[in-house]
Structure formats: structure tokens, C-alpha cells
Amino acid sequence: MFKNLFKGLTIDSVKIVCPQCHYVNDTYEEYKYESMHCIKCNASLNSLVPIEVTDQNSLLFIQNNDRPTVLYFYASSCQSCTEMHHIYEDLAEDLGTKFCFLKINRDKYHQLAEHYNISTLPSLILFHGSDKITRINGPISQSKLRYLLHDLY
Prior knowledge:
Number of strands: 7
Distance between the termini: 39 Å
């Protein structure tokens, strides 16, 4: 009965990884920037704070998230990272429904840093799917980073 009604209709789905339980949620394209919750644990899929990742789970977020992903490498002892951390948190709060903001401590989790040849801190890598779009080495102002991110959505 409904077969002909939906014939030719295509609905694009997008994947969003839950920051709480790491379940890969499928949702519809038109809802990807709205407030959504994980099907498995009911946590919000719009993280308004950067998600702390490890060498083991970082690729799950990068490869399975249809939202553009920003990966921030830092170290606790890095003064520039401390300043950059506040900028990054503010952007995550403002743009957390449009991007997936990740952060990883290079001192604790060095495999991913080695994989991407991170030698300067702070460093940011922007991904869309598994594709690396750009990389920023060293501190960047909030206005410049916001401008760069604005070009992605």
C-alpha cells in the first residue's frame, strides 16, 4: 500500500557518534544540527564541550561521524595549550551542534600524535569523514578559527 507512496523518495542518513557510550547513531540529514539523543543511552549527541579521546577511541569519532570533526592536540604543561583550551571550549559551546570537537592529551596518548606527525602544540586537525581537510600548528585566535570552521558548514 505504501510502496508506491515512497517510491523514488530518498532520505539521506548521517552518522553521529555518542560522546557518552560511543554508539554510532544513524539519523536523518535534516536533523543533524538539531538537539538529538543517543538511541542506546539517551545522552545528548550535541556535545557542547570537547570530548576527551584516547588513541583507542579517537578513530571511532573521526571515521564514523558525518559532522566535521576538529581534533585538538594539547599537553598539560603547555602554556599556549592552556590559552588555546579556553578558545576551543568556547567554540565547542557555540558550534557543538555543527561539529564534533575532540581533544587528546599528547603526553598520555602519543600514538595518534605520532600517526599525524604532531610536533608542535597546540595543534588542530580538521576532518570531514576520514578525510583530513586542514591542519593548524600553534595557537590560533578564536576569530580566525571561527572563520575557518564557518567555511566548513
